[in-house]
């Protein structure tokens, strides 16, 4: 497995951010990415470790209709969550395996550091540039921060 790692600081309190990225993810993502995700359906579990989520993409999203993900890490005590793609999405675009992990660390009462790790394996014929996997994740985090700041104000 290869990995891309990076981090970003957001102006959102850690407890609010954790709630949005973990326990309330399926309700928040369609509002954060309205042009990409139409709905997130909980297929199995309670939204925590081992849960399976179905991300249904908007009709305008090219070459993909859904992404099935399993929460493979979920630890509220240290603010860590990881999601592994089981079907669709990135797996339809040259990847054999794809897992995104987040670790949140409080910087101040209003700022949180997000450490991001994407573990992936590509198909032999797939030409992948290291760091590209993080781009979609940064888009999500930037959109989430904007959504939450608008909601918190």
UniProtKB/TrEMBL annotation:
<dbReference type="Pfam" id="PF00407">
    <property type="entry name" value="Bet_v_1"/>
</dbReference>
<dbReference type="GO" id="GO:0009738">
    <property type="term" value="P:abscisic acid-activated signaling pathway"/>
</dbReference>
<dbReference type="GO" id="GO:0038023">
    <property type="term" value="F:signaling receptor activity"/>
</dbReference>
<dbReference type="GO" id="GO:0005634">
    <property type="term" value="C:nucleus"/>
</dbReference>
<dbReference type="InterPro" id="IPR023393">
    <property type="entry name" value="START-like_dom_sf"/>
</dbReference>
<dbReference type="InterPro" id="IPR050279">
    <property type="entry name" value="Plant_def-hormone_signal"/>
</dbReference>
<dbReference type="GO" id="GO:0004864">
    <property type="term" value="F:protein phosphatase inhibitor activity"/>
</dbReference>
<feature type="domain" description="Bet v I/Major latex protein">
    <location>
        <begin position="8"/>
        <end position="150"/>
    </location>
</feature>
<comment type="similarity">
    <text>Belongs to the BetVI family.</text>
</comment>
<dbReference type="GO" id="GO:0010427">
    <property type="term" value="F:abscisic acid binding"/>
</dbReference>
<dbReference type="InterPro" id="IPR000916">
    <property type="entry name" value="Bet_v_I/MLP"/>
</dbReference>
<dbReference type="GO" id="GO:0006952">
    <property type="term" value="P:defense response"/>
</dbReference>
<protein>
    <recommendedName>
        <fullName>Bet v I/Major latex protein domain-containing protein</fullName>
    </recommendedName>
</protein>
<dbReference type="GO" id="GO:0005737">
    <property type="term" value="C:cytoplasm"/>
</dbReference>
């Amino acid at each position: 497995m290869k990995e891309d790692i990076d981090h970003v600081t957001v102006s959102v309190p850690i407890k609010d951010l954790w709630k949005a990225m973990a326990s309330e993810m399926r309700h928040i993502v369609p509002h954060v990415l309205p042009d990409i995700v139409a709905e997130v359906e909980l297929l199995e579990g309670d939204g925590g470790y081992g849960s399976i989520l179905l991300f249904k993409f908007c009709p305008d999203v090219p070459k993909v209709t859904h992404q099935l993900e399993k929460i493979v890490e979920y630890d509220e005590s240290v603010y860590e969550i990881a999601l592994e793609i089981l079907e669709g999405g990135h797996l339809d675009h040259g990847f054999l395996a794809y897992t995104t992990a987040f670790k949140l660390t409080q910087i101040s009462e209003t700022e949180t550091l997000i450490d991001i790790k994407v573990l992936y394996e590509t198909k032999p014929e797939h030409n992948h540039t290291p760091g590209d996997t993080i781009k979609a994740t940064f888009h999500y985090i930037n959109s989430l921060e904007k959504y939450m700041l608008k909601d918190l104000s």
